[in-house]
Amino acid sequence: MKAFIVTLLCLCATQAFSQEYKNYDWAEKPTLHELSEEEANESSIAILEKYMVEYMVPKFGNNIKKFETNHTIARVHDEKGIKTHNTVYISMYNVIDIVDIKARTITPDGKVTLLNKDNIKEVKNVEEYGDFKIFAIEGAVKDSEIEVLYTLEKEYSAFGRETLQKSYPIKKLEYDFIIGDLPGRVKAYNAKGEFTSKTYTNSKGKQLTLKNIVPMLEEEYATYDSNKTYIAFQCFGPETNVTDSMLWNNVVTNITDGLFPEKVNPEIAKIIESILKDQKSDDFTKAYLIDDYVKKNYTIVKNNNEQLSDIDYIIKNKSASDLGIIKVYSHLLKAANVVYMPVITADVYEHRFDAEFFNPAALREFLIYIPTTSNYILPNRIDYRLSEVPPTILGNQGIFVNDKLQYSFYKISQKDPEYSRVVRNLNISFEDDMEYVKINQEQEYYGHWAMNNRAFLNLAPDQSIKEYEDYLTGSGIEDKVIKKYEITHKDMTQLEYNKPFLVHSTITSESLLEEAGDSYIFQLGKVIGTQSELYQETERVNPIQMQYPNRYNYEIIVTIPDGYEVEGLESLIIKKELLDEEGNQKCKFESNYKLEGNKLTIIIEEFYKEFEYDITEYEGFRKVINAASDFNKAAILMNPKE
Questions:
Q1: 446 and 345 in one domain?
Q2: Which of 602, 574, 576 is nearest to 587 (CA)?
Q3: Is 633 helix (H, G, I), strand (E, B) or coil?
Q4: 541 with 564, same domain?
Q5: CA dist 140 → 49, 75, 168, 237 (Å)
Q6: How far apart are CA 135 and CA 458, in angstroms?
Q7: What is the pLDDT of residues 563-616, one digit of tens each?
Q8: Cα–Cα distance between 171 and 30 in angstroms, integer?
Q9: Rounded to an integer, what distance in angstroms lies between the CA atom of residue 551 and that of residue 608?
Q10: Residues 194 and 148 in one domain
Q11: Is residue 416 in some structural domain?
Q12: Contact 46/73 with Cβ under 8 angstroms?
């Protein structure tokens, strides 16, 4: 009888643990897959990428089990393709057990080489991403197929995210989310398809099937990482009823603990009196001075020491955790009677915040919003002071929390459309009987331009600061000699809203002037510095995302030497613009000139009123960007008068 009971228990356990991954395997006899001519011309192409995430509750016990299976088949056509696929990294993060790992190579002549499991190595902390199992694929030659299949048992986690789009094309992709009767859901992003319900051998779930996924390209003016096709999922314990509203409330309660103090720490009251002494009482000044004080006196420490979140310890030791430093701001702002709202969001270049699908991976950035000024404090950015939202956040959604712990979701936008702009005035003459060009330049940088310049000149190493002179005096002029270089309003602390960063310089250059017999060719366009170019040969994948709206205004006055006249001025006339459906300009580059006696005046206006443009607007946007580069190549001819 005892033996019978043991046998029965074993059978029950086998039934309880009959997971779907056990019913899945690769083909017993592999053969090469047929590809189109276009597919065969790729360096590599994934014929299949299959992901299987499976949650289940064992018959005995309530601990949720989680299994992840990955199966890939890739055709490699050249050395680049082989290099892309012939080393496999498997993250060991949260892995309880390796159920199985197998791999094989099928060469064009049908030879199959199986993975020698003795060659699987463990590597610790690979580039700070944690531990990995790593192995090399053997036997791969051009036009081979590399196939890898493994299953991992992982620690239970209620949330997950998986990036599906890669740097190579994927012919077919399947994602299986198997949860049986457990409560949960899954969502696909940037995908040309949706999850559909599916019944598996022993469970229920959902499957996403995608075909012909194009490679994600690292294109200019794009948030390509957050634009990749990816999925996010949730899976909770049996008979639970967890909603997104409950999850958001939990985040607000936990993260904002201590961020709305009922009483201000006594030491904070003394500090705020010292900070605000003899200063104006408007919220911008008070919040700016608080931000400046914290960043000059406190250090953020990256560890889990609980004391780093204790306000008394922080004030005494001037060290805090990421959350602890928010408490310092909260006490100071409350003491100064400045209304503030904590904001939780993500770097727009890494994650798109989704208010309708809770995903903790998108809760990476903490800001403090000052409603009366519509400006933001970035506690973890020492290079920033109270300002418009920075480009890494602009355009993302965020969760805004008030002092009653009520929250709302908003798209994080820029209030002042003219915040970031550059004004340049240049006076150009020709010296020493046309030996060289002399350029006197006055520049005004506003908004993010000013903020970045100040941060660089105050925080960068001395050698880099010296090299930065090239950027601030006209980049791209190889032989220039800097005769004068003066900077005004360099300090990080600038209490006047959007005070410009000023540069006054004088440079000379021989290379801008080229003899052509008795005439001279003047490379006038180069005086505006090196410009971005968008001459993309492949089809655009990403919509356009600029860092922020910005504007450039130039006035260039050229004194034509006595006894000379100019031709080729038509190259200075350029106009490219992108219009919306109502005919309004969204971005523009326009240059023109007037010639009065020996004074040639060129006026340039370039602006980008928006920072986001649809992919359908790429061609028009590209023409505007390239117009500045085209002007950079413009030249005029100065001929002796007859």
A1: no
A2: 576
A3: coil
A4: yes
A5: 19, 10, 18, 44
A6: 46
A7: 999 999 999 999 999 999 999 999 999 999 999 999 999 999 999 999 999 999
A8: 18
A9: 6
A10: yes
A11: no
A12: yes
Same domain, 77 and 216: yes
In angstroms, what CA-CA distances link 534 with 111, 223, 573?
A: 45, 16, 20
Give this prediction's pTM: 0.89
What contacts 582, CB < 8 A, 6 or more positions away?
Answer: none
Q: Report the SS3 class of residue 623.
A: helix
**What is the distance between the alpha carbons of residues 109 and 126, in angstroms, rounded to a whole number?**
36
Q: Which residues pair with 621 in a beta bridge?
A: none
Read off the tokens for 370: 């000052």
User: Token pair for residue 626?
Assistant: 């390239």
Q: Which of 389, 411, 433 is the last residue of a domain?
A: 411
- Strand order across the 87-91 sheet: 87-91, 132-136, 121-123
pLDDT over 70 for what percent of the chain? 97
Q: Is pLDDT at 6 greater than 70 in this prediction?
A: no
The 3-state DSSP composition of the chain as helix, strand, coil percent (nearest 5) reads 25, 35, 40
Torsion of CA 624, 630, 635, 636, to 10 degrees: -40
| Helical residues (DSSP H) of 34-184, grouped into ranges | 37-40, 79-85
Collapse the DSSP code of 230 into the 3-class scheme (helix H, G, I; strand E, B; otherwise coil) and give the result: strand
Instruction: Return the CATH number at 255.
Output: 3.10.620.30
193 and 258 share one domain: no
| Distance (Å) of CA 566 to CA 378, 412, 560, 563, 641 | 52, 50, 8, 10, 9
Structure tokens at 366: 């903490």
Could you tell me the sign of the dihedral formed by the alpha carbons of 218, 621, 442, 566, in that order?
positive
**Distance from C-alpha of 542 to C-alpha of 621, rounded to nearest angstrom:** 13
